[in-house]
Amino acid sequence: MERKIFSKTLRSLLALVLTMLFLLSGCSGDENSIETGNSEQQSVVESSSVDVTSESNESQEFSDPEDGFYILYTEDEVDFSKAPKAEISIYPWNDDYKPYAYGQVVFKKDDGFYVYMYCEESNPKTVITEIGGNVYLDSALEFFCDYNPQKNKWKKNYINLEMNSAGVYLAQYDGKSILDLSDEKITVEGERRKDYWSVTAHIPLELLKDVYGEINIEEGSIVECNFTKCGSGTKIKHWGTWQMLPGTTPNFHQPKRFAEVQIRKES
Fold first, then answer.
1. Would you say the C-alpha torsion 53, 40, 247, 227 has a positive or negative sign?
2. How far, in Å, CA of 74 to CA of 81, rounded?
3. How far is CA 172 from CA 179, 214, 243, in A?
4. Where are the beta strands (DSSP E) in 193-233?
5. Within its chain, how far is the Cα of 3 from the centroid?
6. 165, pLDDT greater than 50
């Protein structure tokens, strides 16, 4: 009799254990489903934050320049007459003043990048005289460029070079002054004429190595860039750009909207 009771009790306990294992297995499946859902929600949140803080490869929306723009590669003398122009014709945040402007870039092997920018203004505001000053408050031409976009696919590390007509400039990398990151110097020459002004800048390859670390730039390399024109402190405030930039307030610091541009020889 006692043996039967023991046997019955054992079977009941075994059934209970099996039931609990089944239930635990089902709960585990539900948790996995929940985690997947949370992961998807988190991914959406992270994608939303990409616009502000970092860039993922999948979220990139690079522009393919319709004008066939490229950076001219040379091993000889720098000749801007052979380089294509990127016209700064979009003024998304103002419509009362839109001066014609453009930019050109030449990469010289084992030397660096040469940037020429031009603007049709007869009397550009030129007050800032100190390198590293707030040049964007003057009438300024600007070149934004990530010279090594493969370094960090999640966060774009670009240099913003902002210049006034006197050749005074502000240059930053990831919010830090270039002056603090390298002993090599960017040089800028400004020129003012009756109806226009221009700047010519040289960004040494050695400076880029100091800033980015290991970097290999050659014919066929890709950079990501944009050209802009601004006057945040001028009598008539204006903000022009080569690539379309979204937003209700002026903001040139949108690397997600930079264009992918190849370094190559003349077409």
1. positive
2. 13
3. 8, 19, 20
4. 197-204, 222-231
5. 79
6. yes
Place of tokens 């997600």: 256
pTM (2 d.p.) = 0.76
CB-based contact 172:104 (threshold 8 Å): no
Domain-by-domain residue ranges, the chain?
1-50, 61-264
Q: Which CATH number fits domain 61-264: 2.60.40.1190, 3.90.226.10, 3.40.50.10490, 3.30.1360.40?
A: 2.60.40.1190
> Residue 112 region, left (φ>0) first, then alpha (ψ -120 to 50), else beta?
left
Residue 29 CA to residue 36 CA, distance in Å, equals 11
Q: Tell me the pLDDT tens digit for each residue of 35-67.
A: 223 332 222 222 222 233 333 333 444 455 656
Please give the C-alpha separations between residue 76 and each of 12, 73, 83, 84, in angstroms, as whole numbers. Answer: 90, 9, 14, 17
